[in-house]
């Protein structure tokens, strides 16, 4: 069995992310082609595709036995967590990229046999790196991130998309509204990767979304694990790495308080099981 040098993998991943970020910044000056995926709000650009292809080419060349799960489909068909898997979102927050040219990130989580080894989230325009290698602490640029301490709901800032406060199939907004009222405030940044990174960094105390894909949350999972944060599905179950999940991330005590007092009642079990 070969032993992986995760520090070398981390250096390579960061170098490729820097190069990709440079290409994305240059694209601001030209007209980019925008397409739609599932619906007219689900945007994709040539930069999403080019960036993921660039990563896939590099990884296949330098780490031929690693596999890739990517949002834009340049990766591999993956049905098991065996071996080393790079879970890649070339641009998380594509709508922000298109409309605002800010608040989007490149997100890469690297897992071995289902265990997170490296978490990298790079906010391209803010030039902020949220990064960790398992067991070596998490960082925002050069600053080590502290373990998350307990904070009561009244003093917490919650990352939450307003969609979940309107009528929707996944959670009853009547049970969520009091959480919004009782927390110190809510924020929505439009990039799940950035929002999870913010929980790891203490800028948010909790974050949840009723529907995320592996590339939206993979790197965030590794980062949160490294700072002692808890990440489950919204109904309190373990996150399935290769599937769409609801995601609920917070410090342990706050996680429990929000789950017990607000979220659990808002979940219609019958509907939820069908997701
Ligand atoms: P994206 O920008 O890569 O599409 C927006 O609140 C966050 O949710 C972004 O991270 C966005 O990722 C993600 N997102 C948007 N639509 C989604 C969908 N249908 N399934 C999973 N994640 C989605
Ligand atoms: Ca995404």
How would you characterize this protein structure?
The protein is an alpha+beta fold. The protein contains 8 helices and 14 strands. It has a 7-stranded mixed β-sheet with strand order 3-4-5-6-7-8-9, sandwiched between helices. A 5-stranded mixed β-sheet has the order 11-10-12-14-13, with helices on both faces. Strands 1-2 form a two-stranded antiparallel ribbon. α4 packs antiparallel against α7 (252-266) and α5 runs parallel beside α6. The longest helix is centred in the N-terminal third of the chain and has 22 residues, at 6-27. The radius of gyration is 18 Å and the shape is globular. The mean pLDDT is 94. Bound molecules: adenosine-2'-monophosphate (2AM) and calcium ion. Calcium ion binds at residues 71, 89, 92, 215-216.
Features:
275 residues, alpha+beta, seven-stranded mixed β-sheet, five-stranded mixed β-sheet, binds calcium ion
What is this structure, in a nutshell?
The chain is built from eight helices and 14 strands. It has helices at 6-27, 46-62, 94-100, 173-182, 192-201, 214-226, 252-266, 269-273, and strands at residues 34-36, 43-45, 67-70, 84-92, 105-112, 115-123, 128-133, 138-140, 143-144, 157-160, 185-187, 206-212, 230-232, 245-250.
Q: Specify the overall morphology.
A: globular
The helix/strand series, from N terminus to C terminus, equals HEEHEEHEEEEEEHEHEHEEHH
Helix-and-strand structural type: alpha+beta
- Mean pLDDT across residues: 94
Distance from N terminus to C terminus (CA atoms, Å) equals 39 Å
In the predicted model, the low-confidence regions spanning at least 5 consecutive residues are none
Strand proportion, as a percent range, falls in 25-35%
What ligands does this structure carry? adenosine-2'-monophosphate, calcium ion
Tell me about the largest β-sheet. 7 strands, mixed
Helix content: 25-40%
Number of strands: 14
Spatial order of the strands in the main sheet? Answer: 3-4-5-6-7-8-9
How many helical elements?
8
Rg for CA atoms:
18 Å
């Amino acid at each position: 069995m070969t032993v992986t040098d995760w520090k070398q993998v981390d250096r390579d991943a960061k170098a490729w992310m820097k190069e990709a970020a440079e290409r994305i910044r240059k694209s601001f000056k030209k007209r980019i082609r925008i397409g739609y995926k599932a619906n007219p709000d689900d945007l994709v650009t040539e930069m999403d595709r080019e960036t993921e292809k660039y990563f896939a080419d590099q990884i296949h060349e330098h780490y031929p036995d690693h596999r890739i799960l990517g949002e834009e489909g340049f990766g591999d068909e993956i049905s098991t967590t065996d071996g080393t898997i790079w879970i890649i979102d070339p641009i998380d927050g594509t709508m922000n990229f298109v409309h605002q040219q800010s608040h989007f990130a490149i997100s890469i989580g690297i897992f071995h046999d289902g265990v997170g080894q490296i978490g990298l989230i790079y906010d391209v325009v803010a030039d902020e790196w949220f990064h960790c290698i398992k067991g070596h602490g998490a960082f925002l640029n050069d600053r080590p991130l502290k373990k998350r301490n307990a904070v009561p709901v009244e003093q917490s800032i919650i990352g939450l998309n307003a969609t979940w406060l309107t009528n929707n199939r996944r959670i009853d907004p009547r049970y969520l509204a009091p959480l919004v009222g009782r927390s110190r405030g809510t924020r929505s940044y439009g990039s799940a990767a950035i929002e999870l990174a913010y929980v790891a960094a203490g800028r948010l105390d909790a974050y949840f979304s009723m529907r995320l894909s592996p590339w939206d949350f993979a790197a965030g999972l590794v980062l949160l694990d490294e700072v002692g944060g808890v990440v489950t599905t919204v109904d309190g179950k373990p996150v399935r790495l290769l599937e769409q999940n609801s995601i609920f991330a917070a410090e342990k005590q706050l996680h429990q308080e929000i789950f017990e007092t607000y979220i659990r009642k808002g979940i219609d079990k019958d509907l939820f099981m069908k997701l």
